Amino acid sequence: MNSSTHARSYAKVVENGVQAVEEVNRLRSSGYLSENIFVLAHDDDRTERIADTANASEIGIKEEGMFDALANLFRLKGDELRAKITSLGFTEAEAQFYEKELDFGKVLVIAKPA
To answer: In this record, what's one Pfam family (predicted)?
Structure first.
């Protein structure tokens, strides 16, 4: 059995967009592909700006699946963020922890194995 099949996604909470860009660059230089590195902030516009600056990805339909992506249109923001985080392989408890950090203005950088 291939061990990378069960490799977990990596996540790190950082204080701001500058640190997020630095973390994305560090992950890229350690071998992660840009399309497997994601940034997430509480505000969609901030997420987009950081992702563009860092040349990282936003969590979208490919990661969430069509049903969850459509469901997010009707979810409260916290529920939407937790759904995006769990779509990358984290538990509900982990997603709750990370979502609370986003509430405090922090940024989440996630890298998933190829």
So the answer is: YflT
| Domain with 84 in it | 8-111
Question: What is the chain's mean pLDDT, rounded?
Answer: 82
Residue 61 parent element (H or E): helix 61-64
Number of domains in the chain: 1
Q: Are 32 and 50 in contact (CB under 8 A)?
A: no
In a domain, residue 3? The reply is no
**Confidence (pTM):** 0.79
Query: Residue 96 domain-assigned?
Result: yes
Q: Is residue 2 part of a domain?
A: no
Q: Does residue 87 belong to any structural domain of this protein?
A: yes
> In a 3-state reduction of DSSP, which class is residue 9?
coil
Whole-number Å distance between alpha carbons of 81 and 92:
11
- Residue 63, Cβ neighbours under 10 Å: how many? 18
